[in-house]
Write a structure and sequence with these properties.
Helices cover 45% and strands 21% of the residues. With 238 residues, it is of the alpha+beta class. The strands form 3 sheets. A 4-stranded antiparallel sheet has the order 1-8-3-6. A hairpin with a 2-residue loop joins strand 10 and strand 11. It is globular.
Length: 238
């Protein structure tokens, strides 16, 4: 594939793997990839599958979920523009540990595993970028664990929404009055799965945050009205 400017305009606003690549590296990666579109609820990869490709999200949002032995699904993370997905199993040579599903329409680059490892061998510096991606995701997992231990109810949701608002603001600037729309279209049930709480607990927590004029809500839409205030509340600074 030839170098294009259209998708780059989307990716350049984030802070994902793509943004760490220089122009020649991006061009080389495009040459070994094929474009593909995913509609909402379509899987990008399945937990337990053999590893045969990685995916780079150009635009749109996906959720990473893990299924337990009893069939319960747990939301582990969201991925957006510029992010690699389905990559850890390919590089580790094992079955995929999670399912990645589109939350919104997604435009992506799909790279077969052999071509991606050949690309990394031809561009050794990118190995460090991939390692950095792994480290950031381990840090995210640590923060999630700390939130589960240190916060409950509305504060735990506030911590999650603060992180999602900061992520969203990197891809779409806040409005002039500072409001930030949460970009990944997560339902209350998905938010509950992520924060290890019931949908009812999420609904009560959202109601509490609305009463404090920290957020406003609509169908599958949450807007952070006061990000500094939400961050302070999440950290126990009423």
């Amino acid at each position: 594939m030839s170098e294009r400017t259209g998708p780059d305009l989307t990716l350049a606003r984030g802070e994902g793997f793509w943004d760490d690549l220089d122009t020649p590296q991006r061009a080389a990666l495009r040459q070994v990839a094929r474009p593909r579109n995913y509609q909402p609820r379509m899987p990008l990869c399945y937990q337990g599958d053999e590893s045969d490709h990685i995916i780079l999200i150009e635009s749109g949002w996906a959720k990473v979920i893990s299924s337990t032995a009893d069939g319960h699904e747990v939301v582990l993370a969201v991925r957006g523009p510029g992010d690699l997905v389905c990559e850890s199993a390919v590089l580790g040579g094992r079955e995929r540990s999670a399912t990645v599903t589109a939350l919104s329409p997604i435009r992506a680059l799909v790279v077969p595993a052999a071509r991606f490892t050949a690309f990394l061998d031809a561009h050794p510096a990118v190995w460090l970028l991939v390692s950095g991606t792994f480290v950031r995701r381990l840090d995210d997992a640590d923060r999630r664990l700390q939130a589960h231990v240190s916060a409950r109810g509305a504060r735990r949701l506030a911590l999650l929404l603060t992180q999602l608002a900061e992520l969203s603001a990197r891809h779409c600037p806040p409005s002039p009055d500072g409001r930030v729309d949460i970009a990944p279209p997560l339902s209350q049930e998905e938010l509950g799965s992520w924060m290890d709480a019931s949908r009812e607990t999420v609904a009560r927590a959202l109601n509490s945050l609305r009463r404090r004029d920290l957020v406003s809500t609509g169908w599958r839409k949450i807007t952070v009205v006061d990000l500094p205030g939400l961050r302070a509340f999440a950290n126990g600074q009423d």
